TrEMBL record:
Primary location class: membrane
Assigned protein family: Belongs to the immunoglobulin superfamily. ICAM family.
Protein name as annotated: Intercellular adhesion molecule 1
Source organism (scientific name): Acinonyx jubatus
Gene3D superfamilies assigned to the protein according to its UniProt record, in alphabetical order: Immunoglobulins
Boundaries of every Ig-like domain copy: 395-473
Amino acid sequence: MALGTARPALPALLALIGALLPGLGGAQTSVHPLEAIIPRGGSVQVNCSTSCDHRPFLGLETQLTKKEVAQGDNWKIFELSGVQEDSTPICFSYCQAQTMVSMSLTVYWFPERVELAPLPRWQPVGENLILRCQVAGGAPRTNLTVVLLRGEEELSRQPAVGEPAEATVTVLAGRDDHLANFSCRTELDLRSRGLGLFQNSSAPRQLRTFVLPAIHPNLATPSVVEAGTEWPVNCTMDGLFPASEAEVRLELSGRNLHPTVTHNNDSLLATAHDKANMEEEGTQQLSCVVTLGHQSRSWQENVTIYSFPAPNLTLSEPEVSEQTVVTVECEAQAGALVMLSGGVPARLPGPRAQLQLNASAEDNGRIFFCSALLEVAGQVLHKNQTRELRVLYGPRLDKRDCLGNWTWQEGSQQTLTCQAWGNPVPELKCRRKGDNALLPIGDLRPVTREVAGTYLCQARSPRGEVTREVVVNVI
Protein backbone atom coordinates (compact mmCIF):
# COMPACT_ATOMS: atom_id res chain seq x y z
CA MET A 1 0.00 0.00 0.00
CA ALA A 2 1.39 3.39 -0.98
CA LEU A 3 2.15 5.37 2.06
CA GLY A 4 1.59 8.69 0.35
CA THR A 5 -1.83 7.60 -0.85
CA ALA A 6 -2.95 6.32 2.58
CA ARG A 7 -1.56 9.19 4.62
CA PRO A 8 -0.90 12.31 2.58
CA ALA A 9 -0.17 14.31 5.76
CA LEU A 10 2.58 11.93 6.90
CA PRO A 11 5.45 14.48 6.79
CA ALA A 12 3.57 16.77 9.13
CA LEU A 13 2.77 13.84 11.41
CA LEU A 14 6.40 12.78 11.43
CA ALA A 15 7.49 16.27 12.24
CA LEU A 16 5.08 16.32 15.16
CA ILE A 17 6.41 12.97 16.45
CA GLY A 18 9.98 14.22 16.05
CA ALA A 19 9.16 17.29 18.06
CA LEU A 20 7.64 15.27 20.94
CA LEU A 21 10.32 12.56 21.18
CA PRO A 22 13.92 13.29 22.14
CA GLY A 23 16.44 12.22 19.48
CA LEU A 24 20.09 11.85 19.00
CA GLY A 25 20.19 14.68 16.47
CA GLY A 26 22.59 15.05 13.54
CA ALA A 27 21.17 12.17 11.44
CA GLN A 28 20.49 13.13 7.79
CA THR A 29 18.11 11.74 5.16
CA SER A 30 19.34 11.37 1.59
CA VAL A 31 17.64 10.60 -1.76
CA HIS A 32 19.05 9.32 -5.00
CA PRO A 33 18.66 10.55 -7.62
CA LEU A 34 17.95 14.13 -6.65
CA GLU A 35 16.60 14.76 -10.19
CA ALA A 36 15.20 12.35 -12.71
CA ILE A 37 13.43 12.66 -16.07
CA ILE A 38 11.36 9.79 -17.44
CA PRO A 39 8.85 9.29 -20.24
CA ARG A 40 5.19 9.66 -19.35
CA GLY A 41 3.84 6.40 -17.98
CA GLY A 42 7.34 5.21 -17.18
CA SER A 43 8.88 4.11 -13.88
CA VAL A 44 11.87 5.07 -11.79
CA GLN A 45 13.61 3.68 -8.68
CA VAL A 46 14.22 6.02 -5.78
CA ASN A 47 16.77 5.20 -3.02
CA CYS A 48 15.94 6.73 0.35
CA SER A 49 18.71 6.43 2.99
CA THR A 50 19.71 7.90 6.33
CA SER A 51 22.92 8.38 8.28
CA CYS A 52 21.25 7.19 11.49
CA ASP A 53 23.21 4.37 13.23
CA HIS A 54 20.09 2.98 14.87
CA ARG A 55 17.48 1.17 12.88
CA PRO A 56 15.42 4.14 11.61
CA PHE A 57 11.86 4.48 10.46
CA LEU A 58 12.37 5.22 6.72
CA GLY A 59 9.78 5.91 3.98
CA LEU A 60 8.83 7.76 0.80
CA GLU A 61 5.92 10.16 0.70
CA THR A 62 4.30 10.54 -2.79
CA GLN A 63 0.94 10.51 -4.55
CA LEU A 64 2.41 8.14 -7.14
CA THR A 65 2.06 4.39 -7.24
CA LYS A 66 5.04 3.00 -5.36
CA LYS A 67 6.45 -0.34 -4.41
CA GLU A 68 9.32 -1.17 -2.07
CA VAL A 69 11.73 -3.33 -4.06
CA ALA A 70 14.76 -3.55 -1.73
CA GLN A 71 15.95 -2.46 1.74
CA GLY A 72 18.84 -2.46 4.15
CA ASP A 73 19.51 -1.29 7.72
CA ASN A 74 19.37 2.36 6.80
CA TRP A 75 18.09 2.45 3.19
CA LYS A 76 15.16 1.47 1.08
CA ILE A 77 14.58 1.44 -2.66
CA PHE A 78 11.15 2.26 -3.98
CA GLU A 79 9.90 1.85 -7.52
CA LEU A 80 7.52 4.52 -8.77
CA SER A 81 5.45 3.39 -11.80
CA GLY A 82 2.84 4.74 -14.18
CA VAL A 83 4.13 8.28 -13.69
CA GLN A 84 1.93 10.70 -15.67
CA GLU A 85 3.07 14.10 -14.49
CA ASP A 86 5.84 15.97 -12.72
CA SER A 87 6.13 15.19 -9.05
CA THR A 88 8.24 15.91 -5.96
CA PRO A 89 8.48 12.69 -3.89
CA ILE A 90 9.84 13.15 -0.33
CA CYS A 91 12.16 10.73 1.44
CA PHE A 92 11.79 10.91 5.21
CA SER A 93 13.40 9.17 8.18
CA TYR A 94 12.93 9.17 11.92
CA CYS A 95 15.98 8.53 13.96
CA GLN A 96 14.88 9.96 17.31
CA ALA A 97 14.32 13.04 15.16
CA GLN A 98 12.62 13.49 11.83
CA THR A 99 14.48 14.57 8.69
CA MET A 100 13.31 14.64 5.10
CA VAL A 101 14.52 15.52 1.61
CA SER A 102 12.67 15.83 -1.71
CA MET A 103 13.63 14.89 -5.26
CA SER A 104 12.49 16.41 -8.57
CA LEU A 105 10.80 13.97 -10.95
CA THR A 106 10.14 15.39 -14.43
CA VAL A 107 7.95 13.63 -16.97
CA TYR A 108 8.53 14.15 -20.69
CA TRP A 109 6.22 13.27 -23.55
CA PHE A 110 5.87 14.15 -27.16
CA PRO A 111 3.04 16.30 -28.53
CA GLU A 112 -0.10 14.39 -29.37
CA ARG A 113 -0.94 16.67 -32.29
CA VAL A 114 1.21 18.93 -34.44
CA GLU A 115 -0.91 20.48 -37.18
CA LEU A 116 -0.53 23.35 -39.62
CA ALA A 117 -3.86 25.09 -40.10
CA PRO A 118 -5.35 24.65 -43.61
CA LEU A 119 -4.05 27.11 -46.20
CA PRO A 120 -6.28 29.11 -48.53
CA ARG A 121 -7.13 27.21 -51.72
CA TRP A 122 -5.56 30.12 -53.62
CA GLN A 123 -3.44 32.96 -52.25
CA PRO A 124 -3.04 36.23 -54.20
CA VAL A 125 0.57 37.17 -54.90
CA GLY A 126 1.61 40.25 -52.92
CA GLU A 127 -0.78 39.66 -50.01
CA ASN A 128 0.15 38.54 -46.50
CA LEU A 129 -0.45 34.95 -45.50
CA ILE A 130 -0.60 33.94 -41.83
CA LEU A 131 0.68 30.44 -41.08
CA ARG A 132 -0.73 28.92 -37.90
CA CYS A 133 0.58 25.82 -36.17
CA GLN A 134 -1.26 24.21 -33.27
CA VAL A 135 0.46 21.89 -30.83
CA ALA A 136 -1.50 19.80 -28.36
CA GLY A 137 0.39 18.19 -25.48
CA GLY A 138 4.11 17.75 -25.06
CA ALA A 139 6.28 18.33 -21.97
CA PRO A 140 8.29 19.76 -20.45
CA ARG A 141 7.14 22.95 -22.14
CA THR A 142 10.30 24.79 -21.16
CA ASN A 143 12.16 22.49 -23.54
CA LEU A 144 9.52 22.49 -26.32
CA THR A 145 9.90 24.73 -29.39
CA VAL A 146 7.62 25.20 -32.43
CA VAL A 147 9.28 25.74 -35.84
CA LEU A 148 7.39 26.90 -38.96
CA LEU A 149 8.90 25.90 -42.30
CA ARG A 150 8.71 26.56 -46.04
CA GLY A 151 10.10 23.35 -47.43
CA GLU A 152 13.28 23.03 -45.39
CA GLU A 153 13.61 26.79 -44.89
CA GLU A 154 12.99 27.88 -41.32
CA LEU A 155 10.57 30.81 -41.14
CA SER A 156 10.04 31.13 -37.39
CA ARG A 157 11.05 29.48 -34.12
CA GLN A 158 8.88 30.05 -31.03
CA PRO A 159 8.42 28.53 -27.58
CA ALA A 160 5.33 26.40 -27.08
CA VAL A 161 3.06 28.44 -24.84
CA GLY A 162 -0.47 27.57 -23.74
CA GLU A 163 -2.56 24.49 -24.29
CA PRO A 164 -2.92 23.96 -27.07
CA ALA A 165 0.07 26.04 -28.06
CA GLU A 166 -0.23 28.14 -31.21
CA ALA A 167 2.63 29.59 -33.20
CA THR A 168 2.07 32.00 -36.10
CA VAL A 169 4.19 33.70 -38.72
CA THR A 170 3.22 36.12 -41.51
CA VAL A 171 4.73 35.68 -44.97
CA LEU A 172 4.29 37.77 -48.12
CA ALA A 173 3.06 35.41 -50.83
CA GLY A 174 5.05 35.47 -54.06
CA ARG A 175 5.17 33.62 -57.35
CA ASP A 176 7.96 31.43 -55.95
CA ASP A 177 5.55 30.19 -53.31
CA HIS A 178 3.31 28.55 -55.92
CA LEU A 179 3.19 24.81 -55.17
CA ALA A 180 5.57 25.28 -52.20
CA ASN A 181 5.06 23.01 -49.18
CA PHE A 182 4.60 24.57 -45.74
CA SER A 183 4.72 22.67 -42.45
CA CYS A 184 5.59 22.97 -38.79
CA ARG A 185 7.41 20.77 -36.34
CA THR A 186 8.10 20.60 -32.65
CA GLU A 187 11.51 20.13 -31.07
CA LEU A 188 11.71 18.67 -27.57
CA ASP A 189 15.32 19.34 -26.61
CA LEU A 190 16.36 17.11 -23.70
CA ARG A 191 20.04 16.96 -24.55
CA SER A 192 20.91 18.92 -21.41
CA ARG A 193 19.18 16.16 -19.39
CA GLY A 194 21.21 13.44 -20.99
CA LEU A 195 18.63 12.53 -23.62
CA GLY A 196 18.25 13.66 -27.24
CA LEU A 197 16.46 16.10 -29.51
CA PHE A 198 13.01 14.76 -30.37
CA GLN A 199 11.14 16.15 -33.39
CA ASN A 200 7.51 15.80 -34.43
CA SER A 201 6.35 17.21 -37.80
CA SER A 202 2.97 18.11 -39.16
CA ALA A 203 1.73 16.94 -42.52
CA PRO A 204 2.87 19.41 -45.19
CA ARG A 205 0.35 21.68 -46.90
CA GLN A 206 0.84 22.92 -50.46
CA LEU A 207 0.18 26.56 -51.31
CA ARG A 208 -1.03 27.80 -54.67
CA THR A 209 -0.48 31.47 -55.47
CA PHE A 210 -1.92 33.42 -58.38
CA VAL A 211 -2.01 36.76 -60.18
CA LEU A 212 -5.21 37.97 -61.86
CA PRO A 213 -4.83 41.54 -63.13
CA ALA A 214 -7.57 44.07 -62.45
CA ILE A 215 -8.35 44.36 -66.16
CA HIS A 216 -11.05 42.79 -68.29
CA PRO A 217 -10.48 40.18 -71.00
CA ASN A 218 -10.42 41.24 -74.64
CA LEU A 219 -13.22 39.92 -76.85
CA ALA A 220 -12.75 39.81 -80.62
CA THR A 221 -15.96 38.99 -82.48
CA PRO A 222 -18.01 40.28 -85.40
CA SER A 223 -20.78 42.58 -84.24
CA VAL A 224 -23.27 41.15 -86.73
CA VAL A 225 -23.62 37.49 -87.72
CA GLU A 226 -25.90 35.93 -90.30
CA ALA A 227 -28.06 33.09 -89.04
CA GLY A 228 -26.92 29.72 -90.31
CA THR A 229 -23.29 30.80 -90.78
CA GLU A 230 -20.25 29.92 -88.70
CA TRP A 231 -18.48 32.77 -86.93
CA PRO A 232 -15.27 32.99 -84.83
CA VAL A 233 -14.90 34.23 -81.26
CA ASN A 234 -11.57 35.02 -79.59
CA CYS A 235 -11.01 35.97 -75.95
CA THR A 236 -7.53 36.93 -74.74
CA MET A 237 -6.02 38.07 -71.46
CA ASP A 238 -2.45 38.89 -70.39
CA GLY A 239 -0.62 39.10 -67.07
CA LEU A 240 -1.95 35.85 -65.59
CA PHE A 241 -0.05 33.56 -63.24
CA PRO A 242 -0.12 30.67 -63.57
CA ALA A 243 -1.93 31.09 -66.90
CA SER A 244 -2.30 27.32 -67.32
CA GLU A 245 -4.56 27.21 -64.22
CA ALA A 246 -6.97 29.87 -65.54
CA GLU A 247 -10.44 28.75 -66.62
CA VAL A 248 -12.32 30.45 -69.44
CA ARG A 249 -16.03 30.39 -70.17
CA LEU A 250 -17.42 31.79 -73.40
CA GLU A 251 -21.19 32.14 -73.52
CA LEU A 252 -23.75 33.52 -75.92
CA SER A 253 -26.75 34.56 -73.84
CA GLY A 254 -26.05 31.70 -71.41
CA ARG A 255 -25.19 29.08 -74.03
CA ASN A 256 -21.71 27.63 -73.54
CA LEU A 257 -19.57 27.88 -76.68
CA HIS A 258 -17.01 25.33 -75.38
CA PRO A 259 -13.83 27.21 -76.33
CA THR A 260 -10.39 25.77 -76.97
CA VAL A 261 -7.86 27.41 -74.62
CA THR A 262 -4.14 27.78 -75.33
CA HIS A 263 -1.48 29.36 -73.10
CA ASN A 264 1.73 31.24 -73.79
CA ASN A 265 3.76 32.35 -70.78
CA ASP A 266 1.42 34.68 -68.83
CA SER A 267 -1.22 34.92 -71.59
CA LEU A 268 -4.16 32.85 -72.72
CA LEU A 269 -6.23 32.63 -75.88
CA ALA A 270 -9.70 31.08 -75.95
CA THR A 271 -11.16 30.39 -79.38
CA ALA A 272 -14.55 29.09 -80.43
CA HIS A 273 -16.47 28.69 -83.68
CA ASP A 274 -20.21 28.87 -83.40
CA LYS A 275 -23.05 28.46 -85.85
CA ALA A 276 -25.72 31.09 -85.37
CA ASN A 277 -29.24 29.72 -84.98
CA MET A 278 -32.37 31.20 -86.47
CA GLU A 279 -33.94 31.02 -83.01
CA GLU A 280 -31.30 33.43 -81.70
CA GLU A 281 -32.08 36.15 -84.23
CA GLY A 282 -31.76 39.57 -82.64
CA THR A 283 -29.27 41.14 -80.22
CA GLN A 284 -27.48 38.59 -78.05
CA GLN A 285 -24.90 39.11 -75.30
CA LEU A 286 -21.54 37.44 -75.77
CA SER A 287 -19.53 37.12 -72.56
CA CYS A 288 -16.05 35.94 -71.65
CA VAL A 289 -15.27 35.09 -68.01
CA VAL A 290 -11.69 34.30 -66.91
CA THR A 291 -11.43 32.67 -63.48
CA LEU A 292 -8.19 32.15 -61.59
CA GLY A 293 -7.94 31.39 -57.90
CA HIS A 294 -11.15 32.57 -56.29
CA GLN A 295 -11.45 35.65 -58.52
CA SER A 296 -12.96 36.30 -61.93
CA ARG A 297 -12.73 38.95 -64.64
CA SER A 298 -15.37 39.29 -67.32
CA TRP A 299 -16.38 41.29 -70.37
CA GLN A 300 -19.46 41.40 -72.60
CA GLU A 301 -20.14 42.43 -76.18
CA ASN A 302 -23.40 42.60 -78.09
CA VAL A 303 -23.74 40.44 -81.19
CA THR A 304 -26.69 40.90 -83.55
CA ILE A 305 -27.80 37.76 -85.36
CA TYR A 306 -29.77 38.48 -88.51
CA SER A 307 -31.47 36.67 -91.35
CA PHE A 308 -30.91 38.13 -94.83
CA PRO A 309 -31.57 35.86 -97.83
CA ALA A 310 -30.48 36.91 -101.30
CA PRO A 311 -33.08 38.91 -103.24
CA ASN A 312 -35.51 37.10 -105.51
CA LEU A 313 -34.68 38.05 -109.11
CA THR A 314 -37.08 36.68 -111.73
CA LEU A 315 -37.51 36.93 -115.49
CA SER A 316 -41.00 36.46 -116.89
CA GLU A 317 -39.33 34.08 -119.39
CA PRO A 318 -35.63 33.21 -119.24
CA GLU A 319 -35.58 32.24 -122.95
CA VAL A 320 -37.64 34.17 -125.50
CA SER A 321 -37.81 34.89 -129.20
CA GLU A 322 -36.98 38.27 -130.62
CA GLN A 323 -39.56 40.99 -130.14
CA THR A 324 -40.95 39.33 -126.99
CA VAL A 325 -41.68 41.62 -124.03
CA VAL A 326 -39.73 40.45 -120.96
CA THR A 327 -40.49 41.56 -117.41
CA VAL A 328 -37.58 41.60 -114.91
CA GLU A 329 -38.51 41.84 -111.26
CA CYS A 330 -36.43 41.93 -108.04
CA GLU A 331 -37.81 41.69 -104.53
CA ALA A 332 -36.17 41.32 -101.08
CA GLN A 333 -37.35 40.58 -97.57
CA ALA A 334 -39.14 43.14 -95.50
CA GLY A 335 -36.88 45.95 -94.36
CA ALA A 336 -34.43 45.56 -97.24
CA LEU A 337 -34.03 47.83 -100.28
CA VAL A 338 -33.18 46.63 -103.78
CA MET A 339 -31.51 48.09 -106.85
CA LEU A 340 -31.97 46.51 -110.28
CA SER A 341 -29.55 46.99 -113.14
CA GLY A 342 -28.69 45.27 -116.39
CA GLY A 343 -27.58 47.50 -119.18
CA VAL A 344 -30.00 50.22 -118.12
CA PRO A 345 -29.49 53.01 -115.60
CA ALA A 346 -30.08 51.74 -112.05
CA ARG A 347 -33.08 53.14 -110.29
CA LEU A 348 -33.13 54.42 -106.74
CA PRO A 349 -33.32 51.72 -104.06
CA GLY A 350 -36.77 50.56 -103.05
CA PRO A 351 -38.45 47.52 -101.53
CA ARG A 352 -39.21 46.23 -105.05
CA ALA A 353 -37.80 46.93 -108.52
CA GLN A 354 -39.10 46.06 -112.00
CA LEU A 355 -38.26 46.76 -115.63
CA GLN A 356 -39.60 45.66 -119.04
CA LEU A 357 -37.89 45.34 -122.39
CA ASN A 358 -38.69 44.23 -125.93
CA ALA A 359 -36.14 41.44 -126.43
CA SER A 360 -33.77 41.75 -129.37
CA ALA A 361 -30.78 39.78 -130.60
CA GLU A 362 -28.54 42.23 -128.76
CA ASP A 363 -30.22 41.20 -125.49
CA ASN A 364 -29.06 37.57 -125.81
CA GLY A 365 -26.75 36.75 -122.88
CA ARG A 366 -27.67 39.96 -121.12
CA ILE A 367 -27.04 39.78 -117.33
CA PHE A 368 -29.50 41.40 -114.97
CA PHE A 369 -28.09 42.30 -111.55
CA CYS A 370 -30.11 42.88 -108.39
CA SER A 371 -28.50 44.18 -105.19
CA ALA A 372 -30.34 44.13 -101.86
CA LEU A 373 -29.33 46.37 -98.95
CA LEU A 374 -30.19 45.79 -95.28
CA GLU A 375 -29.06 47.85 -92.30
CA VAL A 376 -28.21 45.74 -89.22
CA ALA A 377 -26.82 47.29 -86.03
CA GLY A 378 -25.54 50.33 -87.95
CA GLN A 379 -23.92 48.28 -90.72
CA VAL A 380 -25.17 48.21 -94.31
CA LEU A 381 -25.15 44.66 -95.66
CA HIS A 382 -25.42 43.59 -99.31
CA LYS A 383 -26.82 40.50 -101.02
CA ASN A 384 -26.75 40.11 -104.80
CA GLN A 385 -28.51 37.97 -107.39
CA THR A 386 -28.02 37.65 -111.16
CA ARG A 387 -30.02 36.20 -114.02
CA GLU A 388 -29.18 35.75 -117.71
CA LEU A 389 -31.65 36.32 -120.57
CA ARG A 390 -31.46 34.11 -123.63
CA VAL A 391 -32.98 35.49 -126.84
CA LEU A 392 -33.63 33.14 -129.77
CA TYR A 393 -33.00 34.60 -133.24
CA GLY A 394 -32.12 33.39 -136.75
CA PRO A 395 -28.66 33.23 -138.43
CA ARG A 396 -26.80 36.42 -139.35
CA LEU A 397 -23.79 36.94 -141.55
CA ASP A 398 -22.70 40.52 -141.24
CA LYS A 399 -20.06 42.20 -143.37
CA ARG A 400 -17.95 42.98 -140.29
CA ASP A 401 -17.85 39.31 -139.33
CA CYS A 402 -17.56 37.78 -142.83
CA LEU A 403 -15.86 39.95 -145.47
CA GLY A 404 -17.10 39.57 -149.03
CA ASN A 405 -13.70 39.81 -150.77
CA TRP A 406 -10.26 38.42 -149.85
CA THR A 407 -7.13 39.00 -151.89
CA TRP A 408 -4.11 36.96 -150.73
CA GLN A 409 -0.56 36.42 -151.94
CA GLU A 410 0.12 32.89 -153.10
CA GLY A 411 2.19 30.95 -150.53
CA SER A 412 1.34 33.28 -147.65
CA GLN A 413 -0.08 31.97 -144.42
CA GLN A 414 -3.67 33.09 -144.03
CA THR A 415 -6.76 32.32 -141.94
CA LEU A 416 -10.18 32.72 -143.44
CA THR A 417 -12.45 34.23 -140.83
CA CYS A 418 -16.19 34.12 -141.30
CA GLN A 419 -18.40 34.25 -138.21
CA ALA A 420 -22.11 33.53 -138.27
CA TRP A 421 -24.31 34.69 -135.40
CA GLY A 422 -27.57 33.31 -134.08
CA ASN A 423 -29.23 31.53 -131.17
CA PRO A 424 -29.09 28.61 -131.46
CA VAL A 425 -25.63 28.88 -133.02
CA PRO A 426 -25.98 28.27 -136.78
CA GLU A 427 -23.92 25.82 -138.84
CA LEU A 428 -21.72 27.64 -141.39
CA LYS A 429 -20.41 26.17 -144.67
CA CYS A 430 -18.79 27.97 -147.63
CA ARG A 431 -18.95 26.12 -151.01
CA ARG A 432 -17.38 27.23 -154.29
CA LYS A 433 -19.68 27.80 -157.17
CA GLY A 434 -19.36 25.17 -159.82
CA ASP A 435 -17.64 22.34 -157.92
CA ASN A 436 -19.03 22.82 -154.37
CA ALA A 437 -15.50 22.69 -152.96
CA LEU A 438 -15.44 23.66 -149.26
CA LEU A 439 -13.53 26.69 -148.19
CA PRO A 440 -11.58 25.95 -144.97
CA ILE A 441 -12.70 28.45 -142.35
CA GLY A 442 -10.71 29.21 -139.20
CA ASP A 443 -7.56 27.22 -140.20
CA LEU A 444 -4.16 28.81 -140.68
CA ARG A 445 -2.63 27.41 -143.91
CA PRO A 446 -0.54 28.46 -146.92
CA VAL A 447 -2.52 30.04 -149.77
CA THR A 448 -2.57 28.16 -153.08
CA ARG A 449 -4.11 29.04 -156.42
CA GLU A 450 -6.56 26.18 -156.04
CA VAL A 451 -8.57 28.05 -153.36
CA ALA A 452 -9.36 30.98 -155.66
CA GLY A 453 -12.96 31.37 -156.65
CA THR A 454 -16.41 32.57 -155.64
CA TYR A 455 -17.99 30.89 -152.63
CA LEU A 456 -21.45 30.90 -151.21
CA CYS A 457 -21.30 30.92 -147.36
CA GLN A 458 -24.52 29.61 -145.85
CA ALA A 459 -25.44 29.83 -142.14
CA ARG A 460 -28.31 27.54 -141.15
CA SER A 461 -30.16 26.89 -137.82
CA PRO A 462 -33.66 25.72 -136.82
CA ARG A 463 -34.71 29.36 -136.94
CA GLY A 464 -33.74 29.89 -140.59
CA GLU A 465 -30.79 30.37 -142.95
CA VAL A 466 -28.82 33.20 -144.56
CA THR A 467 -26.34 33.22 -147.52
CA ARG A 468 -23.42 35.51 -148.31
CA GLU A 469 -21.15 35.47 -151.37
CA VAL A 470 -17.43 35.50 -150.72
CA VAL A 471 -14.70 36.00 -153.40
CA VAL A 472 -11.17 34.72 -152.85
CA ASN A 473 -8.43 36.16 -155.10
CA VAL A 474 -4.91 34.66 -155.21
CA ILE A 475 -2.05 36.69 -156.76
